[in-house]
Amino acid sequence: MTYGPLAVPGVRAGFVSRLVAFGIDLAVVNLVGAIVTDGLATAWTLFGLHAFLWGRRALILVDLGAVALVTFCMFPLAWSLTGASLGKALLGLRVVSHDGAHMTLARSLLRLAGYWVSALPLFAGFAASLVDARGRAWHDRLARTAVVYAETTADALPLTGSASRRSLSSSLRRRRSS
Length: 178
Hints:
By secondary structure, this protein is mainly alpha-helical. Helix content is 61%, strand content 6%. It contains 7 helices and 2 strands; from the N terminus they run H-H-H-E-H-H-H-E-H. The longest helix is centred in the first third of the chain and has 32 residues, at 15-46.
């Protein structure tokens, strides 16, 4: 199946900006994951559950579930609600679908699965954005997404209230022109 050109508004984000944003995201996921897993391990020890084989196995499963929940909240949920993960929002980037529309949760989950595809062959899928004419990595191509620079403060806001975004965007334009 062949698709036409992507109609994405805005300037495509560069490799370095995307890399730094991804580094911030990974640092946050690891920090929150470490806090959660250490807290759970401490609770397991306090209640003596670590002494049982089933207790150690249950702790591993609970830890994996907690890290999966943090990852879900940091990436697909954030992309579908606000258009950006924490790292992308800090750097003024946002993720949009191929037509510039708001990201759906299904497309966001597909993009997260694409992260694994991009990472497994020695991160070659991420490096592909250096040679792709549109600056897209493998996970962008798989989910038909693009990462762009947010043009104004209003563009970096959640896309849920279109009326409030329009009014904020128009007030920002009025301020700039005066």
